[in-house]
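Tokens in:
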């Protein structure tokens, strides 16, 4: 529709109409099409892409959903913010920088969340659910994919062979973006390792807690087994059983049960089974 008057390469139009949105960098002689991932304004696993068509004198963005940060950038460019060069390449750089800055901000936010979670695990590991840690790991994995795709796109812009994008005038700026994305990827790797350690620690804590409960139940069962045996023997329906006629035999039997139970409790306590 509105792109046809620009006399773009048919493959550029095909990229714009593609049903499956994803990372794509397609340089042509008179136009450059670039599709970069957009980290949503919240930490979410929803992946969106921003399509950009860059020609010598025109820059068109194709959005799939709202991108508030890009709206602010457009308003700033229409106001007091000036480009370092009056070219579409400079505008393309600012758009790419905006997307990268969003990713960096979300990585820093994720770092704070993981740090708070680590403090909570240290203070009260029982209050931390393993499912919450796994949910954070999925978000970090999503950030990693976004960062990888953006790094690939930025590196691709530095080597794009097209008349529509003056890579020489923005090469140094793009190199700085690559450095920022390298930092992002290293930070994400550290976050993922830390979440893995926290998940193992929480699982170990829960395992120790369950083991302690099972150990306690085992001790109780071990104490009552001989008592059950004594009660079972004297509960048999035989006419003649020794000791049945002894005066005070009932109290002797109860006393024996109490003594056996107390002795086993003392023995298990001395062996540290209740620790």
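Residues out:
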């Amino acid at each position: 529709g509105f792109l046809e008057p620009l006399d773009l390469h048919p493959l550029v139009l095909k990229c714009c109409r593609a049903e499956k949105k994803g990372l794509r960098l397609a340089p042509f002689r008179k136009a450059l099409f670039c599709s970069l991932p957009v980290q949503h304004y919240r930490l979410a696993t929803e992946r969106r892409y921003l399509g950009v068509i860059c020609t010598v004198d025109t820059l068109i963005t194709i959005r799939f959903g709202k991108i508030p940060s890009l709206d602010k950038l457009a308003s700033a460019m229409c106001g007091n913010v000036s480009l370092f060069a009056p070219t579409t390449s400079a505008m393309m750089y600012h758009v790419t920088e905006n997307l990268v800055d969003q990713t960096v901000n979300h990585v820093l936010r994720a770092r704070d969340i993981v740090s708070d979670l680590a403090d909570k695990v240290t203070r009260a590991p029982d209050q931390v659910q393993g499912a919450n840690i796994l949910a954070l790991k999925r978000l970090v994995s999503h950030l990693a994919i976004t960062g990888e795709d953006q790094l690939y796109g930025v590196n691709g812009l530095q080597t794009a062979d097209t008349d529509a994008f003056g890579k020489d005038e923005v090469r140094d700026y793009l190199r700085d973006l690559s450095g920022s994305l390298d930092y992002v990827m290293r930070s994400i790797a550290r976050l993922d390792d830390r979440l893995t350690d926290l998940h193992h620690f929480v699982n170990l804590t829960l395992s120790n807690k369950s083991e302690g409960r099972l150990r306690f139940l085992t001790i109780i069962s071990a104490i009552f087994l001989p008592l059950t045996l004594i009660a079972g023997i004297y509960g048999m329906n035989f006419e003649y059983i020794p000791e049945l006629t002894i005066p005070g035999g009932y109290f002797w039997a109860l006393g024996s049960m109490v003594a056996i139970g107390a002795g086993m409790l003392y023995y298990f306590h001395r062996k540290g089974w209740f620790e």
